[in-house]
Design brief:
This protein is mostly helical. It has one domain (6-63): Helicase, Ruva Protein, domain 3 (Orthogonal Bundle). Helices cover 65% and strands 0% of the residues. α1 (6-20) crosses α2 (26-38) and α2 crosses α3. The radius of gyration is 12 Å and the shape is globular.
Length: 66
C-alpha cells in the first residue's frame, strides 16, 4: 500500500476543486488546501484526509460566496 503524502492530498483536492471553481486559480485553492490540511495534525487514518480537506475548503469557499 502506498503512503498518502500531504503533496498528493493537496494535488487531489486542487484537481477536483479547480473544475468546480474555475474562476479561482489553482494557487488560491492549493493555499486553502494546505491551510485546511494543517488542521488534521497526526491523523490516524490518512486515507480520508483528501475528503476532509476538500470539504473544509469547499465550506470556506462557499462562505465567501464564489
Amino acid at each position: 500500500m502506498s503512503e498518502v503524502t500531504d503533496d498528493k492530498i493537496v494535488d487531489e483536492v486542487v484537481g477536483r476543486l479547480a473544475v468546480r471553481y474555475p474562476s479561482l486559480g489553482t494557487d488560491q485553492i492549493a493555499k486553502r488546501a494546505w491551510e485546511a490540511l494543517k488542521a488534521f495534525v497526526n491523523p490516524t487514518i490518512r486515507d480520508f484526509l483528501p475528503l476532509l480537506v476538500e470539504r473544509r475548503v469547499v465550506r470556506e469557499l462557499k462562505s465567501i460566496s464564489l
